[in-house]
Design a protein that fits this description.
256 residues; alpha+beta; L-fuculose-1-phosphate Aldolase; eight-stranded mixed sheet; 12% strand
Length: 256
């Protein structure tokens, strides 16, 4: 058992010999994230979109198309779009409003390689309270001082509103969009996906806790330290590998 733990702890982000090799890896992780979100019930009809920069042309993004259930997405389904939301590579429709939001954040944040959003039940419900998550658990401390609360614009219909959304996001790791849900970012799609899974679970925990009473809060210094350690890009990436190992074993066809 100890050997297995050491082996897992030694895993690190891969280094690629070419952008083509990196693209294959990125698209496999994007398809895997779609499968994981679908399996966890984050998908409702046509809703839910995950974007990741192309390794060679970072001004273009890969995204899951509309109309294919998240739990069925394969690499061959993914499409590449530009800042205008036009499909550059692949076949299928894309969510125009979702792309407005995602591309605005990508343009404002060169550090963001991937971004996730889906209408997960607990995250969407928590967003109706129009407030940040509290550091009531160790997991929730990951997002301490790393959350943006976006109250306006509540509905995004054009690029101007999308730019306001991105400005409201600021330099935070994640955002709660009032009455809508959560958005998570990362240096890799692995990282962004893990923050989404974890944050939705934290929303669920706070909803349950508040239904029972008033939960206690972690001390700011302790919460801040936990955020610096458990909220690091490396820890987020590494945490996702447990989900990858599971989904690639059960759904090997996702790479097709």
């Amino acid at each position: 058992m100890q050997i297995g733990v050491q082996s897992f702890a030694s895993r690190s982000r891969p280094v690629f010999e070419s952008t083509d090799e990196e693209r294959v890896h990125v698209l496999q992780r994007l398809a895997a994230t779609c499968r994981i979100f679908g399996r966890r019930g984050y998908s409702e009809g046509l809703l839910g979109h995950i974007t990741v920069r192309d390794p060679e042309v970072p001004e273009r993004y890969w995204v899951n198309p509309v109309g294919i259930p998240l739990h069925q997405v394969r690499v061959s389904h993914l499409v590449q779009v530009n800042h205008e939301g036009q499909i550059v590579q692949g076949d299928g429709m894309v969510n125009p409003v979702g792309l407005l939001l995602h591309t605005a954040v990508h343009q404002a944040r060169p550090d963001v390689s991937a971004m996730c959003h889906a209408h997960a039940l607990h995250a969407s419900t928590w967003a109706a309270f129009e407030r940040l998550l509290d550091p009531i658990t160790q997991d929730a401390c990951v997002f301490f001082e790393q959350q943006a609360l976006i109250l306006e614009p509540r509905v995004v219909r054009d690029r101007t509103a999308a730019a306001r959304f991105a400005k409201g996001f600021g330099d935070k790791l994640v955002a709660i969009h009032a009455g809508h849900g959560i958005f998570t970012t990362g240096q890799t799609v692995d990282e962004a996906a893990w923050w989404f899974v974890l944050m939705n679970r934290c929303c669920e925990a706070q909803l349950i806790a508040q239904a029972c009473g008033e939960p206690s809060l972690w001390a700011p210094d302790d919460a801040r330290w936990l955020a610096s350690v458990l909220g690091s890009p490396q820890f987020g990436w590494l945490s996702f590998q447990t989900l990858w190992d599971d989904i690639i074993l059960s759904d090997p066809d996702l790479v097709q």
